[in-house]
Amino acid sequence: MWGHYTSEDMIDWEYQGVKLYPDQPFDCHGVYSGSAFIEDDKMYVYYTGNVKLEDGDFDYINTGRESNTVLVVSEDGKTFGPKKELMRNVDYPSDLTCHVRDPKIWKEGDTYYMIGQSIWFGRDVLMFRSKHPYGPFVDQKTLFTLPEFLDKIGEQRYQHVYMVNIHPALSRTGELVFSTNTDCASFWDNFNTPGSADFYRPYFYRVFNWESLYDNDAPLD
After folding, report:
1. Distance CA 23, CA 46 (A)
2. Residue 212 DSSP symbol
3. CA dihedral sign of residues 158, 206, 45, 211
4. Is the pLDDT of residue 58 over 70?
5. What pLDDT digit, counting tens, does each position of 101-153 carry?
6. Got the DSSP string for 138-180?
7. What does the DSSP 8-state code read for residue 211?
8. Which of 2, 58, 110, 123 has a 20 to 30 Å separation from 176 between CA atoms?
């Protein structure tokens, strides 16, 4: 579920109740994390709709789960329209697990781009594009593969990779800035061993000339 809060000063927040429930066949087991994109006084909210199949012997990582990219639009920031399923597992590369998650959207020129983690806590960042904020999002590419190790004190190996976030306001011409964070090997060691607290701080990356990934693709219709 997604709870809704409002504020007039970005300091004091008032709870407005739950606005997004897992109430559709494509999100019946969870309205998972995502992002919002604002354009022309409309709020486009994208999230991962989680579905766990019940009739079968599944591990729920490689089988038995649907990770659906869902869109819902609000024109006042308070009420939300009907949900639209944008992508399903069949729209992702066949060699991925069932955990393609956390869509983030931005616009460059006349094109809308979407990224998401390629697998649950995975290091590959997928990118799609569209002529409209409501899709269809097509032409999947691998934008970036996060390094296995971090430049930090203490343990340097990435563990679970959380929440790849896009930062268009920090991106200069021809580059794309995004951030992510991770966790330590043992949660109970966090903040207790040298460098462990650094896992939860954001790590920033710049991808240069990222639009060239589509140089050999046909223009969008």
Report:
1. 15
2. G
3. negative
4. yes
5. 889 999 999 999 999 877 666 778 889 999 999 999 999 999 988 888 877 76
6. EEEEEEEE--SB-SSSS--B--S-EEEEE-GGGPPTTEEEEEE
7. G
8. 2
